[in-house]
């Protein structure tokens, strides 16, 4: 067997055997297959795709190419959740404690943010005292005690994906649906779970800009999950505007808290409840319909049980909840700049990726892995698509520790907002693939 024949076969759309893909994986990891050969192979996949068998085998090889994570879950079911990344996406902060308040055990590993989308770990670390560097054993103990724990993803999982992704990144082969699906699901399958709820973002702030591509990705990932014995559901959710109104780490914690207090954005609340409901359903709750579970989630948001769980989750991992309760006081030392509109207008569309990049510029994210985050930096949007603005209305407040960044960000923010009567506002949940 040799790599040139394997590339030739993929180039001619001839299905590769499992042995050939294993040969590719082994050679890539060991370094006997060179970067230019990996690049050619990835480009052949980019143009010719993968058959189902190839897709399942490649995903399996990625999943098994590093450390495998297992939780000692006793008789409990563990359901994982994953978002493909969006702007203002704080659903994990809401959906996980909410599902836990209804009895689902949560042990989850999450990532840090890079680029224009944020990471759950950074949002949690913005709460003074909150630690995320727990060992797996410690996470098990916390979730044994309190029903929920969340820690940083492990560095050594899915080693093959690290090599492939770094080459895809510089060879124009990132946006291939089978490569994205096998990359994401390979990492998910390296972590033991009984089911996976995926939130596939679609729109101007997402990786998938069109509905057709988002649906294709969602279907491909659900197919992979099921083939590997994991019950998998994907919600396709709209990212043509930021999710909710708060973007930035501590600001997003504030907005999550507002949802638990019965306030806050309806789209954010609806999507978080749906994610929670599917998690509970996948755990094997066949006694109730999705609608009944959804209703119980709503009840727990109203009766304070979900808020209690949110509080204990933060306290158990070292966070000081008083900073969240008195957030106005805590935010006081961050500089801000209000953006006022000078004419009557409607917001017709938002370039959400640009809004994410504006938050990044303000200090809310990282351009490279070594950057230090300003946890209080970010944006509150008071108006979104379809909202009418009267002259002198405040459309947004920008937060940063730097006056210079505030001024630069103002221009960038305004360029991302389009005004007019051609309003195209989509539902937050665009489809569900089961
Ligand atoms: N996220 C991943 O983990 N992999 C991809 O290929 C794209 C996005």
Automatic annotation (TrEMBL):
It is an enzyme of class 2 (transferase). It comes from the Bacteria. Its EC number is 2.4.2.2. It catalyses: 2'-deoxyuridine + phosphate = 2-deoxy-alpha-D-ribose 1-phosphate + uracil; thymidine + phosphate = 2-deoxy-alpha-D-ribose 1-phosphate + thymine; uridine + phosphate = alpha-D-ribose 1-phosphate + uracil. GO terms for biological process: pyrimidine nucleobase metabolic process; pyrimidine nucleoside metabolic process. GO terms for cellular component: cytosol. Residues 280-307 form a coiled coil. The keyword Membrane does not apply. Keywords: Coiled coil, Glycosyltransferase, Transferase. Catalyzes phosphorolysis of the pyrimidine nucleosides uridine, thymidine and 2'-deoxyuridine with the formation of the corresponding pyrimidine base and ribose-1-phosphate. Belongs to the thymidine/pyrimidine-nucleoside phosphorylase family. This is Pyrimidine-nucleoside phosphorylase.
């Amino acid at each position: 067997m040799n790599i040139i024949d394997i590339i030739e076969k993929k180039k001619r759309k001839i299905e590769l055997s499992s042995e050939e893909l294993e040969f590719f994986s082994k050679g890539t990891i060991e370094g006997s297959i060179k970067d230019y050969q990996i690049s050619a192979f990835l480009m052949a996949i980019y143009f010719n795709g993968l058959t189902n068998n190839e897709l399942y085998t490649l995903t399996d090889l990625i999943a098994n190419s590093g450390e495998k994570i297992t939780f000692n879950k006793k008789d409990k079911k563990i359901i994982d959740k994953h978002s493909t990344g969006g702007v203002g996406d704080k659903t994990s902060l809401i959906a996980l404690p909410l599902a836990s308040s209804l009895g689902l055990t949560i042990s989850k590993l999450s990532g840090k943010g890079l680029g224009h989308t944020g990471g759950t770990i950074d949002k949690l670390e913005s709460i003074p005292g909150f630690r995320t560097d727990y060992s797996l054993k410690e996470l098990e103990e916390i979730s044994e005690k309190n029903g929920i724990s969340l820690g940083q993803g492990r560095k050594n999982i899915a080693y093959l994906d690290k090599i492939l992704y770094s080459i895809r990144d510089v060879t124009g082969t990132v946006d291939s649906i089978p490569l994205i699906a096998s990359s994401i699901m390979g990492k998910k399958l390296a972590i033991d779970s009984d089911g996976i709820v995926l939130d596939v973002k679609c729109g101007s702030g997402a990786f998938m800009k069109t509905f057709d591509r988002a649906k294709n990705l969602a279907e491909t990932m659900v197919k992979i999950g099921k083939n590997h014995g994991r019950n998998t559901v994907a919600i396709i959710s709209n990212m043509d505007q930021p999710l909710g109104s708060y973007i930035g780490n501590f600001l997003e914690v504030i907005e999550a808290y507002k949802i638990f207090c019965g306030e806050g954005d309806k789209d954010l609340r609806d999507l978080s409840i749906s994610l929670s409901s599917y998690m509970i359903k996948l755990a094997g709750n066949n006694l109730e319909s999705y609608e009944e579970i959804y209703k119980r989630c709503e009840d727990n948001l109203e009766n304070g049980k979900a808020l209690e769980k949110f509080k204990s989750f933060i306290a158990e991992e070292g966070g000081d909840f008083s900073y969240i309760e008195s957030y106005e006081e805590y935010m006081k030392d961050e500089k801000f700049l209000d953006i006022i509109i000078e004419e009557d207008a409607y917001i017709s569309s938002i370039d959400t990726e640009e809004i994410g990049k504006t938050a990044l510029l303000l200090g809310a994210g990282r351009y490279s892995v070594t950057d230090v985050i300003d946890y209080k930096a970010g944006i509150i949007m008071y108006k979104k698509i379809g909202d009418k603005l009267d002259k002198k209305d405040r459309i947004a407040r920008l937060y940063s520790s730097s006056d210079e960044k505030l001024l630069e960000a103002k221009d960038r923010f305004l360029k991302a907002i389009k005004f007019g009567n051609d309003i195209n506002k989509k539902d937050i949940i665009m489809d569900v693939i089961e």
